[in-house]
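ok new one. same drill as before - structure tokens go in, u give me an amino acid for every spot. 380 of them this time. try not to just spam alanines like last time pls lmao
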């Protein structure tokens, strides 16, 4: 039975004091400031020498003393994030270069690591630890949280990420590392599922069932547009403007939470019921940019659902496979294997000229995705 190192994060709602909120805002700002300075200096050095070199955050502390007021590990992690962003661009040219972060649009968050601190009595103490409903963080001190679950005894705390939403809610995500014995589960046809993406139904599976996505954004769209029209008639920066903007942000946050909860519930149910799941590796980013499918693709969150399904299956030793997007799953007859080359997107059902079987387009594609996945063909 193989032993595997796994990471799990537990996210808590945090309630900082007024002083802690000020310090967290400073930290968010310093992290953004250091990112922009390092990126600007790296681009200047690249233009002069042809080498992309990222300086360390310690270089700026003498010139900008306010950087000493925040957690130094948060600044150090910013350098690592910038290096990782540049590496992603070098590995795949389709990924854009790192960009400067805006004060008004960038995400407010920072990550700090848990380290063993040497005490005067010779003992060691973690810099991040949890006691009851309190999380102790470097510089911040004791931060109150709403504790809804606890880690297992063998979980080791590695890092903490503090974030603040556009609506002013604070969260802290604690990252744990642990070892677990995972027994690989053999995939059988009866316990396998193929999923074909559908912008209308979220997906159609190989059993012929659909997810019946509730379309949360579509339901809230009319009310949201009404509130946004009210905002457009208000004076920018006034109290009424800020209150109305907060109302709109809360509505958008509620819709996002509904979508996330739906994806979590559905992916957990599938991961419990099936031993292997096969999905098509479709280009969701490209579909989201289209005029006809963009709003539906952005609304249903299928990419997030696919990510959730992958980590929930692999953590149980089960199989998750993406099938190559160029495999003609809709055009191939799942009974005899004949390919109908002239099938168009408008054809929702078709009859095979080889065996005479009438297929529903999406159900037939899901069956083909499951079958080729079990055979190990067309991996993405």
């Amino acid at each position: 039975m193989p032993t595997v190192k796994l990471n799990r994060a537990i996210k808590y709602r945090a309630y900082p004091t007024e002083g802690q909120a000020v310090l967290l805002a400073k930290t968010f700002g310093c992290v953004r400031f250091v990112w922009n300075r390092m990126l600007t200096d790296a681009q200047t050095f690249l233009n002069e020498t042809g080498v992309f070199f990222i300086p360390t955050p310690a270089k700026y502390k003498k010139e900008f003393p306010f950087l000493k007021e925040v957690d130094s590990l948060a600044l150090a992690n910013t350098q690592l994030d910038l290096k990782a962003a540049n590496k992603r661009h070098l590995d795949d040219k389709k990924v854009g270069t790192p960009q400067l972060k805006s004060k008004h649009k960038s995400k407010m968050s920072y990550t700090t690591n848990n380290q063993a601190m040497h005490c005067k009595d010779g003992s060691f103490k973690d810099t991040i630890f949890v006691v009851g409903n309190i999380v102790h963080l470097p510089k911040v001190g004791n931060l109150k949280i709403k504790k809804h679950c606890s880690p297992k005894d063998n979980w080791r705390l590695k890092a903490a990420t503090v974030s603040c939403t556009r609506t002013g809610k604070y969260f802290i995500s604690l990252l744990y590392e642990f070892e677990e014995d995972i027994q690989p589960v053999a995939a059988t046809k009866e316990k396998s599922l193929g999923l074909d993406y559908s912008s209308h139904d979220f997906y159609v599976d190989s059993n012929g069932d659909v997810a019946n996505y509730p379309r949360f954004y579509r339901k809230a769209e009319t009310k949201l547009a009404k509130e946004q029209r009210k905002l457009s008639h208000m004076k920018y920066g006034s109290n009424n403007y800020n209150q109305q903007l907060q109302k709109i942000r809360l509505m958008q946050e509620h819709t996002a939470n509904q979508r996330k909860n739906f994806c979590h519930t559905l992916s957990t149910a599938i991961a419990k019921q099936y031993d292997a799941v096969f999905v098509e590796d479709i280009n969701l980013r490209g579909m989201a940019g289209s005029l006809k499918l963009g709003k539906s693709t952005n609304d249903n969150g299928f990419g997030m659902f696919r990510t959730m399904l992958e980590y929930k299956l692999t953590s149980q030793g089960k199989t998750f496979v993406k099938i190559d997007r160029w495999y003609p799953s809709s055009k191939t007859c799942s009974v005899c294997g004949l390919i109908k080359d002239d099938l168009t997107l408008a054809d929702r059902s078709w009859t095979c000229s080889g065996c005479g079987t009438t297929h529903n387009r999406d159900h037939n594609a899901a069956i083909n995705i499951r079958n080729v996945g079990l055979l190990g063909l067309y991996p993405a």
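The longest strand covers residues 3-15. and btw The chain has eight helices and 15 strands.
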